[in-house]
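Teaching note: in complex prediction, the entire set of molecules is handled at once rather than each chain in isolation. The prompt given to students was simply: 'Predict the structure of this complex.' The entities are:
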Amino acid sequence: MRADVPARLSALIGMAAGLVALAGAQLLSLIVGATSAPLPAVADAAVDLMPDAWREAGIGWFGRNDKAALLVIALAVVLALCALAGVLAARSLPAGSVVVVALACVAGIAASTRPDASAGAAVPTLLGAIAGLVTLHGLTGMALAAHPGAPVRTLDPEPASQPVAATDLEVPDDARPGPARRGVLRAASLTAVAGGTVAVAGALLARLRHASDDSRAAVRLPDAVDAPPAASGEEFDVRGLAPRITPNDDFYRIDTAFLVPRLTTAGWRLRVHGMVARELTLTWDDLLARDLVDREITMACVSNPVGGDLVGTARWRGALLAPLLREAGPTAGADMVLSTSDDGWTCSTPLADLLDGRDAMLAVGMNGEPLPLEHGFPVRMVVPGLYGFVSGTKWVTDLRVTRFDRDRAYWTDRGWSARGPIKTSSRIDVPADGVEVPAGAVTLAGVAWAPHRGVAGVEVQVDEGSWTAASLGADGGPDVWRQWRASWNATPGKHRLRVRATDGQGRLQVEARQGAVPDGATGWHEVYVTVT
Ligand SMILES: Nc1nc2c(c(=O)[nH]1)N[C@H]1C(S)=C(S)[C@@H](COP(=O)(O)O)O[C@H]1N2
Ligand SMILES: [Mo]
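The expected output is the structure of the full assembly:
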């Protein structure tokens, strides 16, 4: 007996299954990562594997569209193989399934062996393939039922178990234009169209999503015209002690963005307006054309508790804000700059602090790289001496010169202060709270910061003993925190260790404990250790 599911229908079913698989994988790759999308992964892998001559020929034929052409070719090949899988499946489901599984294996291997593959890069392909197999089996089953001349290798060898099917068996194919057949055709077509639509939508979304990564990868930051003098003194290397410069990956992140805003340099604009003589609009190129400076600046979050780690120091590269604001020309009476991020977060910075000669900047670089996306790519504000919530606007696109009595920022509307100079703070990193240490010489170490005033001294105390001066690590200037270190001759028992700093103006860190709301926590950090 001949299979009488028309080849056109079974091929369509195979392609519908393939498109469902691609759609599923494409959507999942939005979560897992760009390189896990099967089609681009296969296309990229093919480029890597093909002989140089082919690659050059491809570029010769398709020019700048070589990537798109490659994707179209890959899609055509995959769909052709899926059509084959559909035709095979109408004769033997396992045979058709094997083709789909083989395709998924090739794509999964391609995705997980890309140089920048994320963990689980094969997962979207494998889950997509499962969706494809389910579709293939479902539609093929419908087709076999509607075209019962097919040699169905069912698990149940008795064909007459269903009276309806038995009747169908006797009806010649062309004499039976039954609704079941049109139903299968419609289901297969709809599935193919839906799968194709979702796959294309997913690919477009992925493009949007990855435009930002691509834009960042393409950035070449100009050199700084002015770099900070090398910090004088030693950087302490004590296990557990915060390094002088915080690596980007370890830098704390605080923002209200549920999804990280994904900007591109090409799309970025900064508008400077409000109480100014001349409104300005800057593009990315305008910004890079300005003199860029490198500065080490310690940034802290107002919600950092005593002893907390929502603080870090980076070497920022950017354009100074003061000259830019002067070009716009603030008008009389203005006392605040309300900055707004691409996602609508707002921040109020005293105009005086931006113009008083400190290195307030529009930063584009962080520790030698373009800003990481989560730290504000492509441009953020950094202002020495002020908590991030009143100075550190990430993804900044708008500066409005205004007055404190006219405008309020995001956190000010939620019970936090309108202004926020960073309070003098110090922290014990080593030993950690609650640890056991052996008696004898014990190294105490930590960091202290009083941004824009500088740290003049750090003292430590054991139990109720006298305060003794710690040695200070490298001095990067008043905007940068300082490491400190002290040696303690530890005696057995439980001990309390405390630290306090004095700022560059000779003022001692505030002892009284206060919580972070509304303008930053105060109090001396203490840890307890057991000496054995
Ligand atoms: N757009 C935007 N910028 C923002 C915030 C935010 O929520 N949205 N949070 C601010 C706060 S409270 C802090 S402490 C700093 C933190 O910067 P970081 O995440 O790069 O460490 O960013 C500031 N800039
Ligand atoms: Mo913050």
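Point out the following to students. Residues 163-171 have pLDDT under 50 and may be disordered. The two ends are 88 Å apart (CA to CA).
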